[in-house]
Amino acid sequence: MRLTQGQFSFLPDFSDDDIRIQAQYAIDNGWAVSVEYTDDPHPRNTYWEMWGHPMFDNPDAAAVVFEVNECRKEHGGEYIRVIAFDASPGWESIRMSFIVNRPKDEPGFRVVRQEVDGRAIRYTIESYAVREPEGQRYA
Amino acid sequence: MNDQSDIERPTTVDLAAAFEESGVRDILQELDETMIGLAPVKQRIRETAALLLVDRARQQMGLSSETPTLHMSFTGNPGTGKTTVALKMASLLHRLGYVRKGHLVTVTRDDLVGQYIGHTAPKTKEVLKKAMGGVLFIDEAYYLYRPENERDYGQEAIEILLQVMENNRDDLVVIMAGYADRMDRFFNANPGFRSRMAHHIEFPDYTDEELDQIAGVMLNGLGYRFDQGGEKAMEEYIRLRRVQPHFANARSVRNALDRARLRQANRLFNEAKGPLDARALSTISEPDIRASRVFQGGLDVDRKPATGAA
Predict the structure, then answer these.
(1) CATH for B208-299 (1.20.58.760, 3.30.365.10, 3.40.50.150, 1.10.8.60)
(2) Please, is B124 exposed, middle or buried when counting C-beta atoms within 10 Å of its C-beta (0-12, 13-18, 19+)?
(3) Does A16 touch chain B if contact means CB atoms closer than 8 Å?
(4) Which positions 34-63 of A are in contact with B (Cβ < 8 Å)?
(5) Which residues from chain A sit within 8 angstroms of residue B170, using beta carbons?
(6) What was the ipTM of the complex prediction?
C-alpha cells in the first residue's frame, strides 16, 4: 500500500530534478529546507529523524538534492521526506512536506479494534512495519 | 539532467547575438573599466568567456553534452586582485548559465578543516553545500595540505573537495587562489587537483604606474583627492614600499591611504583654527603621506633584532 502523506504523494515518484525544483521554490520563498527520515510511517508520527541541520542559508537547491542522496545511501530502505519550514512571524510552521524516498515494499496499515467499556469498540491503525523492532523494519 | 531529445535543435548559431544576449559584454566591460592593468588576466578571461560561449552553442546544437570543467586556479602575489576577479568570474559564469545563482563563497582553511576527528567532513560539506549553485573561492588553498603533520585533517577536506569537484560539476565551480610557488607545490603534492583544474590564471604584479592609478581610483572612491604634493609623495611612497618586505600590491596602497586619511584628520584637527571647507576636508596633501615610516626606511614590524640579545 503506497503511503500518501504530505504533498505530491499521489504523483509518481520524484526524480532528483523534480526535488530540486520544489526545494528551490521553498528556498526562493525564504523557507528553511531540511531532510528527514523514519521507519515509522504512522500518520500521527510528525517527528521524523533529522538528517543534518535544516539548511538555513543555502541559496541553491542542489545542496538539498545532495543531502537527499547522502541520506538515501544510509537510509535507502526507509521513508525520506523534504520539509520546508517558514520562520516568519505569524506562521512559524511547516509550509511544504513531501516524500522523496520510500521502502521497496510498503506493507500498509491494519485496523486495530480495542474493546473498551462493555462492548464499545475503539478503532485505531497500526503499520505492519512497526511490529518489527526499530532498525529491522523494511529489511 | 533534462531529457532534451525531443526538443527542436537550432541548426545555426549567432555568436554575436548570444554574446549580446548573455550580458557577458557588460561583465567584460566592467572588468576593463574597474580593474587597472592585469592585461594577461583580462585576456585569459576573455578567452574563457569565448570558450564557454562556444561550448554553450555547441550544447544547444547537440554537438556535445558534457559540462566543461570550470574549476580554476588563480596564482599571484597578495593584493593583485584575485578575489575581485573571482567575484567577476562568478557573475560571468552566472550570465553564461554555467552556475545557477552566481554567488561567491569565500573560505580559507579554517572554514573547511575541523579541530578534531570527525569534525572536518561535516564542516567541509556544509561549506560545499552553501557554495552550490555558485562559486567556491578557496583563498590560500595550499594551507589545506600540511605534509609535516601526517595527522592533519586537511587531507580529509581535500578528499571530500576532490570528490565533490568531480561528481557535482554541474552544481559548483571551485576557484583556488594563492601565491604561485606554494600553489605549485600544493598541486604537485595533490595531482588530483591539477588535473581537475581546467584554467590556471596567473596574476602579475602591478607596475608602479598602475599602482599610482589605483591609488587615485581608490581615493576617488572614498571621496578624497590628492593635491599636487600629495600625489608626488604617493608615487614616491609606492616605489619605496615595493622594495620593503610584506609588499602586497593594491592592498598596501589601500592601507597606506587609510593611514593617510587618519593623519589628515589628525592634522586638520590640530591645525585648523577657523571653519574648514569641503575642499580642505577631502584633500590628502604631502605631509599626510610623508609621515609614513616607509620614508624612514622601513616598517616597525621589521625592526632589526636587537643585537646581542638571545
Answers:
(1) 1.10.8.60
(2) buried
(3) yes
(4) 52, 55, 57-63
(5) 62
(6) 0.73
